[in-house]
Each structure stands twice: as C-alpha cells, then as structure tokens.
Amino acid sequence: MAAVDQIPVTVLTGFLGSGKTTVLNHLLRQPELNGVVAIINEFGEVALDHLLVESSEDRLALLDNGCICCSVREDLIETLADLASRRAAGTIPPFHRVLVETTGLADPVPVLHTLMTAPDVAGRYRIDGVVATVDAVNGARTLEAHVEAVRQVAVADRLLVTKTDLAADDELSRLDAQLAAINPVAARHHVRDGIVDPARVLDAGLFDPSARSADVVRWFDLAAQAANAPHHHVEHHCDDENCGHHGHHAHNTDVSSYSLIIDEPIQRDAFARWLDYVAALKGEDLLRFKAIVHVAEQPDAPMVVHGVQHVFHPPITLAGWPSADRRSRLVFIVRGIPRQIIENTLCKFAAVSRDAIQRSAA
C-alpha cells in the first residue's frame, strides 16, 4: 500500500484519572469523527448507549455520527488487521482514520512499535500522532511518582491539560513548566470538562505524506527553538527517607530534549548507518526522534524521519523545500543521552563535519 493510502492512527494516552475517558466521551459525540474507528479499552467505561445505531456481539458498535467503536481484542495487531480486512470486504462502513485509546498504566511506546513494525499492520496504517492527557490538579505529583506518566508525556505530539477549572493558577503554571521541561516540542492545550476541538487530537499531520513542506519545516523550526530553550532537563531529587514512592528512579526522570541543525547535505547511506548505530546502542533511551534531512542525493526533496526508541518509521520524502534554507533539523527527546554523544556519533557514522553542527535554532 502506498504511503498516501495508509490509514492514519492517533494514539490517545494518559495516566489513570487524567481525564482521558472524559475527553474520549466528548470526541465520540462530534461530527468530525464520522468515518473514524475508535479502538477503546472497554465499552462499559464510555457512555455510548444513547449514541448507538447498531452493535454486534463481536465488540463493534456504530454510533449515530458515523464513528465506529471497537473494543480492543487481546492483541492490537489482531484488532487492526481484522478492521482492515472488514473494510476491504465491505462488511463495515468505510473508515479513513483510527483513534486508539491506551490503558491508564500503559506505556504508549509498544503501541507505536506495533504500528511501525508489525507485518499485518505497518503496510496498512501509519502513525499520525500521540496525544496525552494530564490532570491539572494531580499531574505534577503523578509525574513525580510514576515513570509511566513521564514516558506518556515524553513521546506525545500534543498534550491536553485537563480539569483546568479545578486547579489554582500557580498550580497550573508549575505543571506547564514541568511538562515543558519533559517535552518542550509538544503543543499544550488546556481543557475543561473534556471539551476539546477534535482538530486538537486528530490529524497532527507532520508525517502525512501529503503535508505541505512549509508547514513541516515551520514545525521543526519552532521545535528546535523550544528544545534549545534553557532548563529543559527534568530532575527531581527526594531526600525524605520516609518517601512512599516506589523507588527514586521515578523521581529522577533524567529526560531531556535538544535539537541540532546541520548546515551541510548528508549522504543517505551515512545517515542510515548513523540511525542503525543509535538504535542499536541507545535505542532504549531515545524516547522520540524527529528529523527533516537535506539528503545529498536528492537536494531538492527533504526527507522526514521519526523514531521511537529503536524503531524508525519509513522515511517520507516531501515535494520540495519551501525556501532557500535547506539545513537539516534534528529534534531529540532522550533519557540520559548527552548532546555531545549524539554530536560525536553524527561526525563518526554520518560523516557530518563538526563545524556544520549548530546547537541553536535560527
């Protein structure tokens, strides 16, 4: 299946009590979800009864706005493959997008790995984006106590800060700063009562093969500026010997972000070799990587790459550069990988000259 024909998938994640189900309940009522399949954990947790047009014993339900709801089977791969087969056979209404809800305790990375690598899935679907909900009242404490919550925020493309009407202004400001420290490149939106514009959740568009190159480059420029802003390193130390949390590793997340700009073309094979090296040796700590690359062999067509830990999505080639600025932009969200190590590996394995590496955004 060609990249433009792959079905985009949005992953909705968030820790227990973060308001994810409330957001999902709101989304499922919106007309914009016509033609969307929502893969949810349990029908019982989402109020569907008055929206149902049709339901079946095999955990499929058609809502009155045209959205198809499906409770996940034991295996997400099986669920996605089955949906694609039914779509092709015409036994369910056609759909053009999938929204996957993760469980509150889930690390979203395995879901992303499934979408990027599973043979029955990767050719039919593509990742559109990851959206994470964070509770404005308890979010700061949750991030300090649970490493899973930190990983949900770190890999997100967009963050929905929920229950903002229940949080004091100073409390909300501290949480915003904490989220910016973990993931400065994710857009943050404040949400009350789960009410959110579906456009804030669906269609992140960065890795859409049909995306306009100007929009993609603009995102990388803004992300580079955010990632290189000061104080984007989260480290919380606890000296309380009576601390009740499960180990201090969850307090000291060691998550940081940074970007590099490379002012020279990069050979395709050399860049691929560097990716292989980073994935093999540092993949576990490479929480999210996104890049737009000036490839020497195709100077007029930028290449967009993104990865999660040791798995990288097939590159997307854009139609052209939007301006004369053809510098490569690389954005990293990592755990315990110093910037200098990345720079050294780029020089050694990607044949990038050190003088061409710029640390600050233009």
TrEMBL record:
Transmembrane regions listed in the UniProt entry: none
SUPFAM superfamilies per record: Hypothetical protein YjiA, C-terminal domain, P-loop containing nucleoside triphosphate hydrolases
Signal peptide stretch: none
GO MF term set: hydrolase activity; nucleotide binding
Domain CobW C-terminal: 255-350
GO cellular component: cytoplasm
Enzymatic reactions: GTP + H2O = GDP + phosphate + H(+)
Record keywords: Chaperone, Hydrolase, Nucleotide-binding
Domain of life: Bacteria
Similarity remark: Belongs to the SIMIBI class G3E GTPase family. ZNG1 subfamily.
Protein role: Zinc chaperone that directly transfers zinc cofactor to target proteins, thereby activating them. Zinc is transferred from the CXCC motif in the GTPase domain to the zinc binding site in target proteins in a process requiring GTP hydrolysis.
Classification via PANTHER family: COBW DOMAIN-CONTAINING PROTEIN, COBW-RELATED
Name this protein carries in UniProt: GTP-binding protein
Organism, as annotated: Bradyrhizobium uaiense
Organism ancestry: Bacteria, Pseudomonadati, Pseudomonadota, Alphaproteobacteria, Hyphomicrobiales
